[in-house]
Structure formats: structure tokens, C-alpha cells
Amino acid sequence: MTDNTSGAKAQTEPVSQAPTFLPAADIYETNDAVVMLLEMPGADPQSLNVTLDKRTLTITASSKPFAPQGYTLVHAEYEDGNYERAFTLSELVDGDRIDAEFKDGVLRLTLPKATPSPAKKINVRAA
Q1: Would you say 83 and 43 are in contact if contact means Cβ atoms under 8 Å apart?
Q2: Does residue 6 have a pLDDT over 80?
């Protein structure tokens, strides 16, 4: 990070040594909703955080090392770390009715479509 006033390098501290992964996502559209499936293997359900700020949907989670009691890890292909992904939603999504479910390492988000406003006539005043 650079200090904009002096151009000097600002000192920083690492927040986390864990890597951050971009979860793979499949997005489907139905007549009533947009459905998102995000793969987050090993994610701790308690760490899942889904937020909507204005039109930005942000998903974060973290995974913890898992080893059954009495077992020693011999080989690992999953790396522990954090998951983070953000999407910009269209005006067609009703942000107040988003539903989230996490099962078998997959986060399913159902984003209901907003009901379109009916057309209305606007009266024009003569000046």
C-alpha cells in the first residue's frame, strides 16, 4: 500500500496467512427467481456470511482443518482457507426475500425476482 501524500510505502501487517479461494458458481434463472450454487468444500457452516449492500451480494466463509480423532493426515488435496465472492445484482432481484441453504459443501442461494411495478400515468401540469 502506498501513502498518497508522500509516496512512501506504508507498513502493513498480514491479516491472515490462509489463502482466499473464489468459489465456483453455477447460476440458473427460472420464471420466478435466480438460483446460485456455490461450491465451498470444507466450509464451516457457522462461518458462512451472506450480505447484500445496495446491489452487491457478498459471500464469505472459512474452512477449518478436519481430522477425525485418532487419525493422522497422510495426504491432503483440499487446502484450508477462506472463501470470498461478490456479485452485482440487477434491479430484478427482490433483496428482501433472498434465501440461503448450505448442504454438502454447496451454498444454494435463491434470489426471487421482484414484482414489476405496474405502468402508471403521470399528469402534466400546464405552466
Answers
A1: yes
A2: no
How far is Cα 55 from Cα 93, in angstroms, rounded to an integer? Answer: 9
DSSP secondary structure code for residue 42 in this structure:
T
Mean per-residue pLDDT over the chain, rounded: 86
DSSP H stretches of helix in 1-127:
none
Indicate whether 33 belongs to any domain. no
Please provide residue 55's backbone torsions phi and psi, each rounded to the nearest 5 degrees. Answer: -115, 10
- Cα–Cα distance for residue pair 62/46, rounded to 1 Å: 9
Residues in the chain: 127
Report pLDDT digits (tens) over 54-83. 999 999 999 887 778 888 888 877 788 999
Residue at 93 is within a domain = yes
The distance from CA 86 to its chain's CA centroid, rounded to whole angstroms, is: 5
Using CA atoms, how far apart are residues 2 and 5, in angstroms rounded to an integer? 9
**88 lies in which domain range?**
39-65+77-114
- Residue 122 counted as domain residue: no
Domain harbouring 54, CATH code: 2.60.40.790
Within a domain: 96: yes
